[in-house]
Amino acid sequence: MGKKRTAKYKKHIGKAPGTLIYTGEKNSQQLFIESFDYNPDGFTEKELKNIEDVFGYKTSESITWININGLNHIEAIESAGAHYGLHPLILEDIVNTSQRPKIDEYEDYLFLSLKMLHLDANENVIIEQVSFVMGDRYVLTFQEAEGDVFDNVRERIRSGKGRIRGMGADYLLYALVDAIVDHYYVISEMLGNKIEDIEDTLFEGNVEDSMSIQILMLKKELLKVRRAIFPLREIISRIEKSESTLIDKKSIQFYRDVYDHVIQLSDNIDIFREMIWSLMDMYMTTISNRMNEVMKVLTIIATIFIPLTFIAGIYGMNFDHMPELHLKYGYYIVWIVMVAVFIAMVVYFKRKKWL
């Protein structure tokens, strides 16, 4: 029996549009909220206890990043969405962890849904959905659980290095998206290394029984990464071409840089995809060649013994008037003939390079 799969979409059947249903598997996740409120002169970092504590940041004169972990806390997300004026369909997409990466533009805010990828201790790809809501002077991020790829952004805000404190919410959104895309490179490099390792093993002829499973698992990982990366091209392209007043023209060039990275990653994924198909073909060819080698050896052995069996069969017949049977050295002569035939055939096969 295979692993039973959870039917996530069954939860939505018969529900009204905009109904919030958490489709993930981390139902015991604690609600964790952190805020970074900053301007060119300083910053404030807080761990908020209640969802109501985020409401005051909407009218803040500084730039605010509010990070909410725990998509299973539906009531808290509904409360935050109501205060910030988010559409119910946006809130539905936030708690739907199967949501395809997308962008929606509204008059007062932009909504982005992306896939954040990172590796576990065994170098397996972990996929987590991250949703962004960018307003005039704030960015809200919604994550399924604690642990993300934004530590570098946090350090830049704390230290004041770079231009992040002097820019607006659109640059903060860029910095967060760029952090996710940078980790795509880590995943891409890991996939490339795994493909090269399998390729080297196949070239060396060290084919294991589990090799086909390794290739299939690698193919599944690649498809998951591909589904996360490819929609990002359209998302960044729409931000570049957006006429929203929330995106400053100075920030467009940074989004173009992210777009270039996404295109490069997409090309890498396409190359890896072709390489994996080639790996499967190479694996099947290697298995076939190994089988052919076995059959060749068995065929040569059988061919060598055919004339020897023929000689033994002739002199195994029970006729009284076979002249050779009464020779004094007949037994030894037959052995000499059989050994000579054996040696002659081995020499012939070696000259033909069949052995």
Please provide a written account of the structure:
With 355 residues, this protein is an alpha+beta fold. Helices cover 51% and strands 15% of the residues. Strand 5 (110-119) and strand 6 form a beta hairpin. The longest helix is centred in the last third of the chain and has 66 residues, at 249-314. The relative contact order is 0.08.
Helix content: 40-55%
Strand content: 5-15%
Question: Mean pLDDT, rounded to whole units?
Answer: 86
First and last CA, distance: 46 Å
Shape assignment: rod-shaped
Radius of gyration (CA) equals 34 Å
Please indicate the count of domains: 2
| Main pleated sheet | 7 strands, mixed
The SSE string, one letter per element, is EEEHHEEEEHHHHH
Record field, number of beta strands: 7
Q: pLDDT below 50 for ≥5 consecutive residues: which ranges?
A: none
Report the CATH architecture of the largest domain.
2-Layer Sandwich
Q: Which fold does the CATH topology of the largest domain refer to?
A: Beta Polymerase, domain 2
Structural class: alpha+beta
CATH class of the largest domain: Alpha Beta
Superfamily (CATH H level) name of the largest domain: CorA soluble domain-like
Could you give the order of strands across the largest sheet?
2-1-3-7-6-5-4
Count of individual helical segments = 7
